[in-house]
Write a sequence for this structure.
């Protein structure tokens, strides 16, 4: 059965690549799982030497995965990853199809899978990973995921019922994530980032109450959102001591990327890779698509900052402000991968940043909602477009050749934008 | 700046907006409602200040409030708020509401004003018992009511939003709904009612947040607050709401195509 499913999947991947259909990274897996629900389990059991690394969290999965892949490949390992964003069971199954031989043999040392928040418990029933990395939990797509507390509870239950003993790599600065380490008997290592002194966390802070006793947390320092050096005012549960909170050379700017880089470095160290090798491998790191990716288009430069929830949107605004951005295109969609509820844009702190931009263009399915948000943030120099193509053309016209057009799209908007700029579909 | 000639002295109106538990009861972009109330006052030169009423706030602060607002929350957060509502704090809020203080209570806050909330496992959490309503979760595994929603309020205007709730709310005989569901689920997906309106207080499941795309509700709250405070009929200056209207039409088109 497997041979047939793998063969069939490979043909689908091949055809969708030729025809530029853009669904080769989920559809073969979808079909395979429908015919054989143990497809993933079976193929993994055939490849006992394949080591698996799982990455879950709201923001940073794709970048962290790419960082780890780059480091591992730098030390001569053979590594594959599921396609960014194809992080449900069908995405994992599809990538197994793609990287195995017809007989189901996988000639790689490592598989890195980024996993959707809701899918983590399911995937753990099929796969025994070597390492699980949990990066953070922010409010995101509340219509699909439910609330942050509900997800962390699901994760806790899933981790507690594991019969294997993977190492856990956890974010010490995110109370909900760090607390998972308390509940589990596995080996746990922590990464964090040194923050600034601050009493106030941002408005969209989800976890400023103790995950154990629900009392108010005190923060000695904070980085962003609810991440920082926290301690419970009542039961004194506090941030565990991080094993990595510094690195000599960061291949990507932005505070949020420090977390991703520290998670990757800690993972690499766990796998026995020396600091020298890690540093050397990361020198030539290229960002994943849509994550600070720069695309050249007709003599102009466009940089894409995927911005899909309040935490990531605030971080994007923060970093492009540091980069002295002047021309900005915001694209808001409300399709299934974006979350159908766009309420979250009111949790983004636009008021803090908007005066820095000379021109703002707004597009996407819910452009008017975004325009309304900007209006109430006190802006008046923005333009709203129904057509993304026209918005892109106009935005480029307004951006001088020696400047960069900064774009902040939601997930499906990012795919649309890339398609316009490169002519290719990804998913 | 000099103000050389101003023969007519306008009264400078001012109001205080009380934001109940901004840290705990604020999950779905609820701060957008506060932003809208404040801005629409500012644009009309009405002085508006926001008073954040956090866990452990002194209930005497309620005396100075002209508009009350409380948003939705996660279960854990709601339990913390529940504990913070002592008997006397509950009585102070009841007095405010009975005394016609305009207020907007979204989702979790709306449920909390009722008699009780029965959780999926059957456990009952006592509410403040100010609104004659109760809410029950139909049980583990039962669907949440999620999606874009449009309702018609008693004045005939269409209100749009996004709902996302597990609990089903049932109104007592004498409590009026906030609106009738045109498309969506509303209070319980059975009787086509949505929300509740009691005196000048609105309880509703509508996020979105509700006020940016339905500014007439914001203006109603502001008007009621000014009338109550200054004890006279007040007509607010009209604002350009064409952008709100367009955003609302986008949602209505989306709903119609479903």
């Amino acid at each position: 059965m497997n041979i047939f499913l793998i063969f069939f999947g490979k043909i689908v991947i091949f055809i969708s690549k030729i025809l530029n259909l853009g669904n080769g990274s989920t559809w073969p897996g979808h079909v395979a799982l429908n015919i054989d629900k143990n497809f993933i389990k079976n193929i993994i059991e055939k490849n006992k030497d394949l080591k698996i690394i799982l990455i879950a969290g709201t923001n940073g999965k794709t970048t962290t995965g790419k960082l780890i892949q780059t480091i591992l490949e730098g030390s001569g390992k053979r590594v594959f990853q599921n396609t960014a964003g194809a992080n449900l069971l069908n995405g994992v199954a599809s990538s197994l199809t793609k990287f195995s031989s017809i007989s189901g043999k996988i000639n790689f040392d490592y598989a890195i899978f980024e996993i959707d928040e809701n899918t983590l418990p399911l995937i753990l029933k099929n796969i025994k990973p070597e390492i699980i990395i949990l990066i953070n939990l922010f409010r995101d797509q509340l219509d699909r995921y439910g609330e942050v507390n509900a997800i962390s509870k699901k994760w806790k239950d899933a981790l507690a019922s594991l019969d294997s003993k993977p190492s856990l790599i956890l974010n010490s600065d995110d109370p909900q994530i760090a607390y998972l380490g308390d509940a589990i008997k596995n080996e746990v290592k922590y990464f964090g980032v040194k923050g600034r002194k601050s009493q106030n966390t941002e408005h969209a802070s989800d976890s400023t109450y103790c995950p154990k006793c629900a009392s108010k947390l005190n923060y000695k320092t904070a980085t962003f959102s609810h991440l920082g050096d926290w301690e419970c005012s009542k039961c004194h549960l506090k941030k565990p001591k991080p094993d990595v909170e510094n690195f000599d050379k960061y291949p990507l700017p932005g505070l949020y990327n420090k977390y991703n880089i520290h998670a990757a470095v800690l993972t690499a160290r766990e796998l026995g890779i020396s600091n020298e090798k890690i540093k050397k491998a990361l020198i030539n790191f290229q960002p994943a698509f849509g994550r600070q990716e720069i695309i050249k288009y007709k003599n102009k430069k466009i940089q894409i900052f995927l911005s899909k929830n309040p935490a990531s949107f605030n971080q994007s605004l923060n970093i492009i402000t540091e980069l002295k951005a002047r021309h900005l295109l915001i694209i808001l969609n409300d399709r299934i991968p974006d979350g159908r509820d766009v309420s979250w844009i009111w949790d983004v702190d636009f008021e803090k940043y908007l005066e820095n931009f000379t021109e703002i263009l707004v597009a996407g399915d819910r452009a008017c909602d975004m325009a309304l948000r900007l209006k109430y943030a006190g802006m008046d120099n923005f333009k709203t477009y129904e057509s993304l193509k026209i918005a892109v053309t106009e935005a480029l016209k307004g951006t001088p050749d020696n400047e960069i057009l900064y774009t902040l799209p939601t997930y499906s908007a990012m795919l649309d934008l890339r398609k316009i700029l490169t002519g290719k579909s990804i998913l | 700046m000099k103000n050389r000639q101003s023969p007519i002295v306008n009264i400078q109106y001012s109001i205080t907006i009380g934001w109940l538990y901004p840290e705990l009861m604020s999950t779905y972009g609820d701060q957008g409602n506060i932003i809208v109330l404040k801005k629409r006052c500012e644009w009309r030169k009405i002085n508006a200040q926001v008073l954040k009423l956090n866990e452990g706030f002194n209930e005497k602060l309620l005396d100075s409030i002209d508009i009350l607002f409380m948003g939705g929350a996660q279960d854990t957060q709601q339990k913390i708020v529940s504990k913070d509502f002592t008997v006397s704090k509950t009585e102070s809020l009841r007095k405010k509401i009975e005394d016609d203080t305009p207020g907007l209570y979204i989702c979790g806050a709306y449920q909390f004003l009722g008699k009780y909330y029965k959780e999926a496992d059957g456990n009952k959490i006592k509410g403040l018992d100010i609104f004659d309503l109760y809410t029950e979760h139909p049980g583990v595994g039962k669907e949440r009511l999620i999606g874009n929603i449009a309702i018609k309020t008693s004045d005939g205007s269409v209100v749009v939003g996004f709902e996302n709730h597990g609990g089903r709310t049932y109104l007592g005989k004498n409590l009026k709904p906030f609106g009738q569901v045109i498309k969506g689920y509303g209070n319980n997906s059975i009787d086509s009612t949505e929300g509740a309106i009691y005196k000048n207080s609105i309880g509703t499941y509508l996020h979105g947040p509700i006020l940016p795309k339905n500014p007439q509700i914001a203006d109603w709250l502001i008007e009621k607050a000014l009338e109550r405070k200054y004890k006279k009929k007040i007509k607010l200056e009209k604002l350009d709401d064409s952008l709100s209207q367009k955003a609302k039409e986008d949602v209505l088109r989306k709903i119609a195509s479903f």
In short: Chain A touches chain B at residues 139, 142-143, 146-150, 203, 205, 208-209, 214, 216, 334, 340-347, 365-366, 368-369, 371-373, 375-378 (CB under 8 Å). The two ends of chain A are 26 Å apart (CA to CA). The first helix of chain A runs from residue 2 to 18. Chain A has a mean pLDDT of 89.
